[in-house]
Amino acid sequence: MKVKFTKMHGAGNDYIYVNTMDYNIEDPAAAAVEWSRAHFAVGSDGLVLIGRASMPEAHFSMRIFNNDGSEAMMCGNACRCIAKYLHDKHLTAANPIRLETPSGIKVLAMDLDEAGEVTSVTVDMQEPVLACCEQCATSDGTATDLALEVLDRTFKGTFVSTGNPHFVCFVDDVEHLDVARYGAALEHNALFPQRCNIEFAQVMDDGSIRMRVWERGSGITLACGTGACATAVAACHTGRASRHSDIVMDGGTLSIEWREDDNHVYMTGPATTAFEGEIELK
């Protein structure tokens, strides 16, 4: 069977998007592995399935599978792309869109130009979680500037969950850090029973935060929406930045605001359609 897909990216974080209201993907983990292979298939960071919501308070649902077949709780960059997908394909007139994810309902507000084209999307990522014993194996489930020895160096990192678990390490020179070497080691550290996404971040002279990421299940990616949110929260939580930060990643920049009034994190950034096609479902 041939399946129609749309290849999209948010700040370079690229996924294959399939409308499961049209297609039944019985083994999405296997499809994610097969279709994500660079050079041999579409090539991507993973597979995103868009479907009907199971609860009345949401418009649509999403599931996301990394390119190793593991399922993630959610993805901020994918949420923005889903908003654009639904808008461009005239599947809804709602704005904002309420999207059901395994980590709760996310509210997606689109900015439109005079022609009705999506220019950016703001996602309400809800409240960050700074303590979770299931994901961070300290006595109280917290880690704030915790010194963690990995391989031949020590990192100071802060645990933040923004729908996915993250360990944000602030360093002096993020550009020359071996992200693959240290990211892989930290992902599988005993501190993280469910593995963890790893961010390496540096606060720049202009107040922006340069961040590079090693994603659990995907490895190095050009951007990570939940990781950008976690980095902004960690920077504010440790006194390195204010509640509003621009997170500069390899694939682009996201604007993150951790508001005082509701304690929610709001992420604003682009969503881009790369191309569409058909691929064989084995």
Description of the structure:
- This protein has 282 residues and is of the alpha+beta class.
- Helix content is 15%, strand content 41%.
- It has four helices and 18 strands.
- It has helices at 28-35, 76-88, 179-187, 225-237, and strands at residues 2-10, 13-19, 46-52, 60-66, 71-72, 97-101, 104-112, 118-124, 146-150, 153-161, 165-170, 197-203, 209-215, 219-221, 244-249, 252-258, 265-269, 272-280.
- The chain has an 18-stranded mixed β-sheet that branches.
- It starts with a strand and ends with a strand.
- The mean pLDDT is 97.
> Structural class, judged by helices and strands?
alpha+beta
Radius of gyration: 18 Å
Please work out how many helical segments DSSP would assign: 4
Largest sheet: 18 strands, mixed
Residue stretches low in confidence (pLDDT < 50, at least 5 long) are: none
Count of strand segments? 18
Topology as H/E string? EEHEEEHEEEEEEHEEEHEEEE
Q: Can you give keywords for this protein?
A:
282 residues, alpha+beta, 18-stranded mixed β-sheet, 4 helices, 18 strands, globular
Question: What would you say about this model in short?
Answer:
With 282 residues, this protein is α+β, with helices and mostly antiparallel strands. Helices cover 15% and strands 41% of the residues.
Task: Record the SSE blueprint.
Blueprint: E1 2-10, E2 13-19, H1 28-35, E3 46-52, E4 60-66, E5 71-72, H2 76-88, E6 97-101, E7 104-112, E8 118-124, E9 146-150, E10 153-161, E11 165-170, H3 179-187, E12 197-203, E13 209-215, E14 219-221, H4 225-237, E15 244-249, E16 252-258, E17 265-269, E18 272-280
